[in-house]
Amino acid sequence: MAVFNGMTLTNKGLVLQGKAQAGATLHYTRYAVGDGSLTGQAIPALNGLISPRLSLPINRLRTQPPNKAIVGTVLNNSSVTTGFFMREIGLFANDPDIGEILYAYANAGATADYIAPSGGADVIERTIDSVVVVGTASNITATIDESLVFARQAELEAHKTAASLDHPDESVTTAKLAAKSVNQAKIADKAVGATQLADGAATDTVIGNRTADPNTTAAYGLSGSVTALFSWILKYFKAITGKSNPFDTPDITLASAKAHVDAIAPHSGHAVTVRKINTSAGLQGGGDLSADRTLSIADDGVTDAKFGNRMIDDTVTATVDADTPTRLWSKLAFLIKAITGKANWFTPPKITLEAASASLDTLSSKKEDRANKNQPGGYAGLDALGQLPSSVFGSNTNAATLGGRPTSAFGQNFDVQTADLNTLVQSGFYRLGGNNANAPVGVQYGQLLVIHGSGDTVTQIVTGYNSDNIFWRSGNPPAAGGVGNWNVWRRVWHSGIQGNGSGVDVDTVDGYHAATGSTASTVAARDAAGGITAYGFTSTRNDGAAPIIVNSQGWVGNLNADMVDGLHASNIARYGGGVTSTTLNSQNADTGMYNISDGSTIGLTADWYHVIHMRHVSNDGYAGQLAIRYFGAGEMYFRSANGTTWGAWKKVVTEGGSSVLVAAQAGYNARYVRNTFMSTGDPSGGQPGDIWIKYQ
């Protein structure tokens, strides 16, 4: 059984983990297994498996609070054609900036398991789970192949015995339920709403009996339960009929009452002889109403009880018009608000007019008097700096507050030689010692600024006394009343620490990202081998200076240059390969070496030929050609063009060839000149018919 002893995060995995802590998505993409052995490599420096054999999709991902996640896959040998020892395993993830990376790696070494090829007696299927630490990363995802997701036996057993099954919403459809399988005990109280009932389903039997209360004390309303609505109706019946029971017959019906009202003389024959007006409350002119009466109100007859309550509105703008008592009072309230400056007319003012007048009189009496300046009862004059002299308050004045604020509300100076910076949360200025806990690395005897306005968050800024470094951090620590922690120290880069060796790692340079590929609008960066990949290269170097300097003499494939050694292709003889007569019959064809399979198309005997074509530099129709026959007896021909047409082919005389030099003439013993020798020495050897020419 392979022993992997846990997975180790790679360097790129640690970087991605830091990005996830800052809020980036931690997205796992796949597993891979291989048979590579560690031979001194450092696991954190690996960018991939040493010898990968299989790529496995992720089929499950679940978090394991507080800071871990379980990522799983399944390995089977159905696609394995050649057996191997599963010695290494890697988990891959997507970095939002550079793409897929090797996130974590493990190697079983000598304990590796053999994975047999498919088609044999061994059918292998293994579940692989990795527990990875994710810290406080909150957005963890994975690319999961749903077709490979299945539950393990332990998960099925846990699902079967769970007290409450958790299925996706709307996954249990009507077709999945047996007929009449949902009984009353399975339905939660008040779970059936109005939209779940069929029209007409609420029959009298379903609704059941209700007991109405005609004496209900609940206030009337247009919305209520069935019982409440019936109770209000019965109570209203009682109010209409005036009976104690809503079912008692009324003394008169509404129809009878209307007929009585509509009658011309409903009270005919009944004289009004009784007194209808009570004069005891101040009304004059009492008596019966058989004749017109003029009523008047006695003095003081309208008491508070008769006038009743009124509501004052202090937003009514005051005007000089006559108005009702209520509006007049409202206008007075508006004026009171304007005088006091308060939001409501009934809110007491900050100071009474009488007190304000007294204060003004006091200030007037304290006006500047040169003779009594800074004297008891006199004016307190300002000094040349615009400040009150100490004689006003006396020396060493020590107030409990300044401007109504305690000393904790102002930044103070502190000397903290050994204090832990995690505990310093009061706003102020701190002089640090040589070894303060939780200070930035390398900062000694520096200065600390703490900013803690209010609430449970705080910020610290630190500078060193003998360096240009500035650090800052913020947090929500318990010392400030928070429930979190301090964030890590961040270094501030500035003009004093920029350039080579500063350690600055920026996302863009002048707005451009870095890329090792040929991505448009990016800054070119070297790849792992030190090379640069680009879409194109444009040189603006002056003519005469090399735009590219190449030290290697290696062959460059697919390099198509405009010139070679300063010469264009049209000025260099090239191998043109097999061509037709169209090319070779053109005086302006490119200078070069060609093949033609049928010499008869260019005026020669039918056969294969090597042809050298030489075009004039002016490209004006002047050219020459030399043709060498493949299978003949060493024949060679040449022809030239005079600017418009080709001349006839001429056969070249060669040693050992059959070219005729001199035709047979009468009286001559030889028909062919076999060899002609030219030499400065005496002839030697030779055969009959040879011609020897000696020249001085």
Automatic annotation (TrEMBL):
<dbReference type="InterPro" id="IPR022225">
    <property type="entry name" value="Phage_tail_fibre_N"/>
</dbReference>
<dbReference type="Pfam" id="PF12571">
    <property type="entry name" value="Phage_tail_fib"/>
</dbReference>
<protein>
    <submittedName>
        <fullName>Phage tail protein</fullName>
    </submittedName>
</protein>
<feature type="domain" description="Phage tail fibre protein N-terminal">
    <location>
        <begin position="8"/>
        <end position="153"/>
    </location>
</feature>
